[in-house]
Amino acid sequence: MLKRLIARWQGVLLTLVGIVATVWLGATGQLGLYIHPRYFWFSIAMALIGAVFVVAAFAFTPLPEEPDEATDAAAAPGLHDHSHHDTAEPPRGNRAGTVRAALAALTIVVATGALLVLPPTTLTSATATQRSINSATSALDASSPTLVGGDTANFTVKDWALLLRQNPDVGYYADKDVDVVGFVTASPDDPENVFYLARFSVTCCAVDAQPIGVPVYLPGWQEQFEEDQWLAATGAIEQNPGSTGDEPLVLVTETLEVTEQPEQPYVF
Fold first, then answer.
1. Is 94 a residue whose pLDDT tops 60?
2. Distance in angstroms (rounded) separating the CA atoms of residues 196 and 250
3. pLDDT at 172
4. How confident is the model at residue 7 (pLDDT cuts 50, 70, 90)?
5. Closest CA to 177 of 265, 256, 266, 252
6. pTM of the full predicted structure?
7. CB–CB of 66/27 below 8 Å?
8. Residue 9 has pLDDT above 70, yes or no
9. Nearest CA to 1 among 47, 62, 54, 53?
10. Mean pLDDT of 58-80
């Protein structure tokens, strides 16, 4: 019975860790680091329903009249009497069970550390590099709304990145001022002269987040800024003066300052 109880509580503890983490992130306003805001209440509701099942699991633990040995004895009565007298070494089944219990305990410890001990954090430039910024699978695909001709006064990084893709005519941007906030990630094509002010576009959760960004032309930018720093930039869109790179248009800044990470680091 003890083994069955422990086996059941392993799953219960993992569920409990997930519930506490979800509710805590929601209460502290940090759930947005992992999921789209439209799923906040759904996630909280699922966590609370999960809590009901956790309480039920504690309430309905294995009963004393469910002895495993009794079942085993009924199935093989001839073997039962000898098992108590000639057990010089632990059976292999016991050793395997001990290993499984140890692995389960390790899983619980790792999950607890990852979800409850380590501070929540947003995705970084390392993820942006892995997922290819402004890729065809990002929020900048052909199904995106047309922004050409729109009011750019409140455009975000996502809006500017989409507009640059939809209209590569530099003359169109002559009277348009850019004012954006994003984190720094190096251009894969011209890392010495260009970096992106980037954000992650989230459709459902951090797993499907896609990096998008506005290319900034600033030779030697590494001497002033570091990757993952959040910057606020103003400036204008101009032809890329560099001879390399896939970005024909870039942001040439008038002001560029280090700023705090926004409360909501993602765009939707």
1. yes
2. 9
3. 92
4. low
5. 252
6. 0.73
7. no
8. yes
9. 62
10. 53
Structure tokens belonging to residue 156: 């975000």
Distance of alpha carbon 210 from alpha carbon 216, whole angstroms: 19
Sign of the C-alpha dihedral computed for residues 21, 26, 32 and 33 taken in this order: negative
Question: 209 is written with which tokens?
Answer: 């987040």
Site of tokens 């729109």: 150
Nearest to 216 by CA among 204, 201, 206, 227: 227
Q: Is 241 helix (H, G, I), strand (E, B) or coil?
A: coil
Tens digits of per-residue pLDDT, 176-204? 999 999 999 999 889 999 999 999 998 88
Q: With the C-alpha atoms ordered 156, 159, 165, 170, is the resulting torsion angle positive or negative?
A: negative
Tokens of 199: 């954000």
Q: Which residue has the tokens 């910024």?
A: 133
- Residue found under tokens 């290319």: 215
**What are the start-end ranges of the H helices in 113-254?**
125-131, 157-166
Residues 6+ positions from 100 with CB-CB distance below 8 Å? none
**Other CB atoms closer than 10 Å to residue 256's CB: what's the count?**
17
